[in-house]
Design a protein that fits this description.
By secondary structure, the protein is of the alpha/beta class. The protein folds into three domains: about 60 residues, Orthogonal Bundle (Arc Repressor Mutant, subunit A); about 100 residues, D-Maltodextrin-Binding Protein, domain 2 (3-Layer(aba) Sandwich), CATH 3.40.190.10; about 100 residues, D-Maltodextrin-Binding Protein, domain 2, CATH 3.40.190.10. Helix content is about 40%, strand content about 25%. Strands 3, 4, 5, 6, 9, 10 and 11 form a seven-stranded mixed sheet that branches. A two-stranded antiparallel ribbon has the order 1-2. The chain has a two-stranded parallel sheet with strand order 7-8.
Length: about 290
Amino acid sequence: MSQPAASRMMADLERLTGVKLYERHPRGIMLTDAGRMLAARARRITQELEDAGHALSKLSSGVRGRVMFGAVTGPALEVVIPAIRQARLTHPEIELSVNVDTSDHLAEALVGGELDFYIGRLLGNIDASDVELREIGPEWIHLLVRADHPLLRRPQVTLDEALAYDWIMQPIGGLMRHTVELFLLHQGFELPARTISTASLLVTLSLVATTNAIAPVPRAVYDFYASQQGLGARLDYLPVDTEISVVPYSIITRRNDPLSASARLFLDIIEARLDAEGPDLRGWLSSE
């Protein structure tokens, strides 16, 4: 900036503020007290503008922003938690908000704009034309018991023997309960004579750990809670001679509603993990 232009700008500032901002001396210009105060404020304002520019750039590139997503329990344990750990390292300025719930509730939250996407199933409570799906794979179910359950002392365990005990099941209408009951009926078994109904995983784990009750749970739930990573819980599963699986689940997004840059970035992390796992996703389970 030339000296005449700087002088005109300083004169304009003095007219705007109504105070003297500088004094001329033989060795140059010296700011008055008012001038020093205005200069300090101007430096802060300039820095704020630069910071805002950097923040807007990060927001548009996806490295900063908020991602609201949901998952049913199995994928939350198996994939979402590792993805969150990775995002904390590579993109720490993204704010992540995760809702772990059943698919029907997650679907309603997605359509209502409360979630960017969720990992679960598409049930009959929303219009399928409103969403897009990437199918992941089926889930596999373990019959969870305490580590010293009487049936574990036997060399082989049959479902008939397991049905003699209390079973902890989802409330009537839950997808997993419906799947387990259909499986038993199709295999020619009676339904459990004694059941405890609860949607709470905490209640389920507490009852299994302290009683002889049996609980059908996603394999990912067993893998997490029966391991040292899962606080070393004293849990095991019944090695019955047949496996139970539930229909596949998917990554579900709203149709014709592009994800924000940050949501797209986080979903890319999840999809990269999926691609690395390949087609065999037996560990990916959920608990509708």
